[in-house]
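yo

u said u wanted the structure for the complex thing, so here. seqs first:
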Amino acid sequence: DTGVSQDPRHKITKRGQNVTFRCDPISEHNRLYWYRQTLGQGPEFLTYFQNEAQLEKSRLLSDRFSAERPKGSFSTLEIQRTEQGDSAMYLCASSFHIDRNTEAFFGQGTRLTVV
Amino acid sequence: AQSVSQHNHHVILSEAASLELGCNYSYGGTVNLFWYVQYPGQHLQLLLKYFSGDPLVKGIKGFEAEFIKSKFSFNLRKPSVQWSDTAEYFCAVNVRNTGNQFYFGTGTSLTVIP
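structre next:
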């Protein structure tokens, strides 16, 4: 499968625990995005990378959230001291940005439940 | 505030009925426009996109959308829906000069009754 891959698909954690999600983008894609989606809402932007550089972060991304893309390939999203409000679907997308016309390809998402 | 608005939150249609889902955006400048579809249990998939040129774009599975710049709209249409079109539909905007992220609407849930 050459699409965007996310791991794990589901994560249940206790409040206060740390969790880490992984995203493997489509191999030639230079941009990688993280989004969060809650029930009844569209995806909300969290952050994005151009190669290994994190170029933009949403105000939604509190200090408890950190994302990395160390070698410009896969990315990780870590949430520290999880709260019940963090329960959501976390989506990763990637795109090949060569000019101003680009489209994003999404992974299956990681569903986080904080209990 | 800048936003993407989808007016229909939940639509129920019988098979063979025509579909039109509204999408309006409030971002200035030149935009790229998209419709994504999410079938039950599956990931978001691109249905169609508009970058430039003919404002009437055709996508997969018989869907089309029309970009009306003066109305800041990008409505999705299909002349005859099928049961398999039951899904969540999301309109998205990418502002070309920034190009940094995709802004999504809240989605429209379509249920097609056989």
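Residues 90 and 107 of chain B are 5 Å apart (CA to CA). The first strand of chain B starts at residue 4 and ends at 5.
cya
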